[in-house]
Every structure is written in structure tokens, then in C-alpha cells.
Amino acid sequence: MKAFRPFVVCAALALPALAHAQAAGDRPADTFEEIERGIYFSVLGGPFFVVNPPSASGPRPFSPGQMAQVEVGVDIGERLSLGAFLMGASNRAGSEYVGNSGGAASGDFSMLVPGAVARFHLVGLADAQDVQRTWIYLRGGAGYALFRPQQLLPDPDILVFAGPGLEYYTRLRHFSVGIEVTGSFFVKSQSFGFAVTPNLRYAF
Fold it and tell me: What does UniProt give as the signal peptide span (predicted)?
């Protein structure tokens, strides 16, 4: 009987460890989404051109410039995203451009545009692991454009824009990068513009 005592003691000590190992084996392994979707934050920036700047009279010269935009929104499934944005832009114009000032001011102008935006993913392209990391999408929105200097362009306008883009979801699953080409239209002044904007996006 004494010969079995060491065996009994070892078995008693081993049973809790075996039970813990069995419980750990029963738990499902942690899994992660290859692409994070949800609340997101993105930044965009690049050249922004206005073909015929707002003007009541006088020349409306082609106006090159730069824009930057920040956007916060939410992904609704894999295809649709809705968000709000704030855009700032600065455009060059010669001394012949007097806008709506009647000649009291001339030259360069800038704008600040808050608004809302929607994006719809059209086509997804899978990688070697069959994960759709590359997407062709369509993005559009509208905003309330405020101009500076106010003497040059005293009246706000409604900006609407839309265009296609290409986005790649990196293997750092929260991040994606992309580029889009956007056509713009100022409703009140009947001004046209376009932008080419690389972008960086982070999803929580």
C-alpha cells in the first residue's frame, strides 16, 4: 500500500494542471478581422482647381490651388460609409480677378467648407489570401462654402462634389490608403472645379 502513496500524491498534483489545460483547449482561439470597419477618421489633401471662380462680372480666370480635408464617419457594412468633413482650400488668382467686390478687392481667395459625405464601394479585388483589400469606390458629398477675403467674395455658396477613387486596405488592419479624382460644382455661382486627393484612413 505504501508503494502506491507516491503515485497517488503525483496524481493529485497533476489533476488540477490537466483540468486547466483541458479548459484552455476548450476555449476558442482569438480571431481578428483582416480589415477593420467601424468608426473611422481620414485625412485628404492635394491640388484643387477652380475653372471659373465666382464672379458677378469681369474675368473668371482658371485658379489653381491646394486643399486639405478631415473626415469622421462610420462604415455601414462592407459597402457604405457615411461621414462629416471639414475642408479648407486656398486658390491663386491674378489681380484681374475681382470676384463679387465690384473692383474693391482682387487676387487670391480661400474657402472653408463643412459638410456631409457618403462613399459606396463598387468593386473589390481579392489578394492571394482571398481578402478583398483593393476597392474601387464612388464618393460624393455637399457642403456650405465660406470664402475669404469676405470683401472679395461676400456670399457663401453650396459646394457639391463626386468622383471615383481607389483604396487599398493595408495589412496593418486599421489603416487604408487611397487616391481619388473629384469633380466639384458651386451651385450659386455656377463655378466648376476638380481635385486629385491622396488620402489616409484609420478605422477603430
Answer: 1-21
Reading the block at residue 192, the C-alpha cell is 466648376
User: Cell numbers 485625412 label which residue?
Assistant: 43
The contacts of residue 36 (CB under 8 Å, 6+ apart) are: 173, 174, 203, 204
Q: Confirm whether pTM is higher than 0.90.
A: no
> Containing H/E element for 20?
helix 5-26
Cα 122 from Cα 140, distance rounded (Å): 13
The third-level CATH classification (topology) of the domain covering 35-203 is Porin (2.40.160)
Contact predicate 117/140, CB 8 Å = yes
Burial of 111 (0-12, 13-18, 19+ CB in 10 A): buried
Copy the grid coordinates of residue 45: 489633401
pLDDT digits (tens, 9 = 90+) for 91-112: 999 999 999 998 999 999 999 9
Query: Three-class SS string for 143-196?
Result: EEEEEECCCCCCCCEEEEEEEEEEEEECCCCCEEEEEEEEEEEECCCCEEEEEE
Percent of the chain with pLDDT over 90: 74
In the chain, domain spans = 35-203
